[in-house]
Amino acid sequence: MKNIIVLLVCTLISYGIHSQSIIGAWENYTTAENGDKLKNVVIFTDGNNVLTTYSATTGKFMHSHGGSWKLNCDRITEKIEFDTTNSERVGTELTYKVIISDTTIEIVGNNQKLNRLDNGKPGKLQGAWLMSGRIRDGETQLRDTSRPRKTMKILSGTRFQWIAYNTEKKQFMGTGGGTYTTINNEYTENIEFFSRDDSKAGLSLTFNYELIDGNWNHKGFSSKGDPIHEIWSLRD
């Protein structure tokens, strides 16, 4: 009977936390040793998350880690798929206690509180997406999204981030992110950080987008000016 009561309490707590919309984007600010103001942004989608730190003034990329997550009572467990600072954490799990309100997430014991940026709206592409193909010269080239080498794009209602990584080799290849909008079938990225080239911070890129059979068709020009036509599929 006691176990049933505990299970019921945990279920109610979990439902309460979800009803308070952990899904979305959250932020706080910290200060680096050199006095630089750092911006920390966390995006939670249904089952996937990413945390990134970068300079709030220059856009210089500092750190990112993420993967999948699950909730048990008031504890979140993350399974790390990529970590730009410590690759040995890939494949391990990290559990921490949280207190979630409508406007904040407090990480208990870590003296950290994140403020809500959005609740998964208004952007129409909220979710975690895996690159599943490209169209070149009219020919569709599909890729297996279950392989260890992945390119994931994770979006809240206003924030986006892409990450290229390999879980088998515990390898990180690159990431970039910022804010986005979806207006009149145009998807616009406003880049705030780019791990491969800090000078890309401040750049805005606009693409045509279309959802076809649930897949996101993404067409335009890359930050290098190269034409692209990508296909992205929602992550299971």
Descriptive account of the structure:
The protein is mostly beta strands and 236 residues long. It has two domains: 2-118, Beta Barrel (Lipocalin); 127-234, Lipocalin (Beta Barrel), CATH 2.40.128. 8% of the residues lie in helices and 59% in strands. An eight-stranded antiparallel beta barrel has the order 1-2-3-4-5-6-7-8. An eight-stranded antiparallel β-barrel has the order 9-11-12-13-14-15-16-17. A hairpin with a 4-residue loop joins β12 (159-166) and β13 (171-183). It is globular. The two termini are 35 Å apart.
Q: What secondary-structure arrangement, pairings included, does this model have?
A:
Elements: H1 2-19, E1 24-31, E2 37-44, E3 48-55, E4 61-72, E5 75-83, E6 93-100, E7 104-107, E8 112-118, E9 127-136, E10 139-142, E11 149-155, E12 159-166, E13 171-183, E14 186-194, E15 204-212, E16 215-221, E17 227-234
Antiparallel strand pairs: 1-2, 1-8, 2-3, 3-4, 4-5, 5-6, 6-7, 7-8, 9-10, 9-11, 9-17, 11-12, 12-13, 13-14, 14-15, 15-16, 16-17
Number of helices: 1
Spatial strand sequence of the major β-sheet: 1-2-3-4-5-6-7-8
Uncertain residue segments: 1-19
Major sheet: 8 strands, antiparallel, barrel
From the alpha carbons, calculate the radius of gyration and give it in angstroms: 18 Å
Which whole number gives the mean pLDDT? Answer: 91
| CATH architectural group of the largest domain | Beta Barrel
The CATH first-level class of the largest domain comes to: Mainly Beta
